[in-house]
Each structure stands twice: as structure tokens, then as C-alpha cells.
Amino acid sequence: MSDLSSDSFLDETVTYERTGREHESPAASQTDDPMDPPIYPYKSKLTEFLWTLPQPLIALTAMSAVAIAITSEAMTPEALGGDADTLTAILLFSPLILLLGAERIWTKKKAWLLNKKDFVEDLFWIFTAAYIWLPLIGDYYRTPIKDAFEWIRDNSFIPFTLEATTIPGLILCAVFVQTTTEFIYYWIHRWSHQYTLLWRTHATHHHITKMSAMRSDRTHPTEFLALSISTPVILALFGATSEVVAVSAALGFCNGWITHSNLPMRSGVWNWIFTSPEHHQLHHSQNFDDSNTNFGCGVIIWDRIFGTFSDSSYIERCGSGTGRQLSLYEQYVLAFYPSKKLTRL
Fold first, then answer.
1. Shortest CA distance to 66 belongs to which of 311, 283, 242, 276?
2. How far apart are CA 228 and CA 73, in angstroms?
3. Could you read off the pLDDT of 135-156 as tens digits, one per residue?
4. What angle do CA 146, 176, 292 make, to 5 degrees?
5. Contacts of 20 (CB under 8 A, 6+ apart)
6. How far, in Å, are 163, 233, 236, 321 from residue 146 at the CA level?
7. Tens of pLDDT along 9-51?
8. d(Cα 226, Cα 207) in Å, to the nearest integer?
9. Closest Cα to residue 298, out of 226, 228, 216?
10. Rounded distance, CA 266 to CA 227, Å?
């Protein structure tokens, strides 16, 4: 299918949003049930300030834990033997478990709380991403494409490489990697909202009707190809070491889970650069204009620079189009729907 211009795609979608609800099916109209207040009611200015602290604390702790494991001789793969993989899993996934527990205690919107079916589906997305799609893409990039990345590394015009042997150094390098890789991701993501060809692969992620830390992995397999290109390009340009890559991965995973969480976190100094849950929740709003802001999943600075940032915290519902929750089958096959059907979901 040939690509459509951004104007034609946006016009078609906006027209449907304005008129489509007049002829909704009973299933779609269920989204009109009363929802929670769109803005979380903080009890005091102190409470509001305290909610700016969890995100940097969790992210810095996750990076520090991985950095300590790397720099400590007692925690190397050679020293740990068969327990190395277990330690890696604990370090990477502990923040997710913590966030899921916190969502049940400090819920931002009760309508977003996951039920058993939601949990099962989310586990499916995480499992398939970790054990099927990402390994396949890793093998794809180890084909002759790997030679291209190595050529970039060997001929890079960057006069320095990203390597560090201390905990602060590893953390600083990881922050630099995440910020630069998100520059490429920002444009891919922004174009995915402008062109039907790219929206096909991205729409699955926007048809979630609840926000939760587990939802960051609801990504169509074909989208992984596009999203995975930014990291190896930046790593090749700057010659990042495997230690820097590991700490950067911890920050990337952690930020992705936090920004999708159903928690009343507020934006603070940390969010001058990094995306907050408020920023990304707005991006997942069913409101068409709001969903075309805050394209940075982990880093928000590029939205600030290129004029797509919004500091609004008003979100009534999340979803796309009619706001109907799609079946697992629909989420996988919608990338292959005709354009008219795709924009009518």
C-alpha cells in the first residue's frame, strides 16, 4: 500500500472522531460509562511535591544496582556462575514488580486497574517480546546489517567513545545514550502518527484502554524493527562498551514501565529531560490532539525542543479512535487492515 500524506490521514481521522460516535455499536458505547476524575486530587502541595520523587529514585536505583553489579568483582558472571542470569533478571524486573504493587495502593484512576484477563494478556506481550520478537530482531541485526553498524563505529566522526569504570561514569554514559537514541526514536514515533504506513505498526500500542506499567511492552512485532534501529546506530557512533549498554538498558526498561504506570506521579526537575507518567498518559489520551503531543517515551527534551511538548495533566480516557478495547487477534492483524478499516477502529 502506498503511504498517505499526513494531512489526508489526519483529516480522515479527525472527521471520524467528530462524527463516528453517532453510529457507535453497543460495545463501543461502553466507553461512555462514568469514569474517574480526569485529574488526580492531591491533598496538599507537600503531597504533590513528594510525588515528583519516586521516578528519579527508582530510575537511579535501577541504574546504580546494575552499575554496582558490573563494577563489583564478586558479582561478575565468572564469580556468579549459573546465577548470573538470575541476578540480571532480578535487577531488570524488580522495578516492574514494585510498580505493579504500587498501582494497587496509590491508584491514579480506578478505571485503569488491570483485571485477570488484562494481566494474562500483558504477560503474553512481555513473554513474546522477550523470547520471540527481540531475539529474532537481534539475529536480524547480526546479518550483514551488523557489518554496516561496525563500519559506522570504525569510521565514526565522534572524537570519543562511551566507556566508564566507575558507577557515576556508567550512569552518566547511560543517560547520554538514552537521550541521543531517543532523538531518533522521537522522529520515528512522530512520523508514526503522521503517515498511515507507519501508523499500521504503531496503532496496536495506542489501542490500550488502560495505563499500567506492564503496558509498555504492548508493541506490534513489526514496530520492533523500526524502534530497534536507533540504539545500535548510536552505540556504533559512540562506540559504547557493553557495560554502558547494560546500565542504559536498565534505564530504558525502567523509564518505559514508569511512564506507562497508573500512578499519580507529578513532573519535577527530573522531567525537564525525562518523560513523566503525566506526559505519557496524555500521549495515550483518546483525545486526538493530546495524543499528538509528548512523543518521547523515556526522554521528553526533544518534544520541548521541537514544539510537541504539552504539560497538561487532563486525561479522561486513554485509547484510540472509538476507544473500544480490541481483542488480542485484532491487535495483531490491524497492521494489515485496509486504510479505511484501520481508521475506523
1. 242
2. 31
3. 776 665 555 555 655 666 666 6
4. 90
5. 321, 322, 344
6. 21, 10, 10, 39
7. 343 443 333 233 333 433 443 444 556 888 888 999 999 999 9
8. 19
9. 216
10. 27
Rounded distance between C-alpha atoms, residue 92 and residue 100, angstroms: 14
Q: Taking CA 175 as the corner, what is the angle to CA 164 and CA 158, rounded to the nearest 5 degrees?
A: 65
Q: What is the dihedral of CA 210, 20, 315, 331, to 10 degrees?
A: 30
Q: Which residues pair with 285 in a beta bridge?
A: 318
Q: Of 69 and 302, which is predicted with more confidence?
A: 302
* Cell of residue 300, nine digits: 521528553
Tell me the domain boundaries of the chain.
Answer: 6-13+36-342
d(CA 74, CA 163): 21
Using CA atoms, how far residue 41 sits from 108, 109, 213, 309, in Å, is 9, 11, 21, 23
C-beta of residue 243 within 8 angstroms of C-beta of residue 164: yes
Q: State pTM to two decimals.
A: 0.83
Using CA atoms, how far residue 211 sits from 39, 46, 147, 185, 232, in Å, is 14, 25, 39, 21, 29
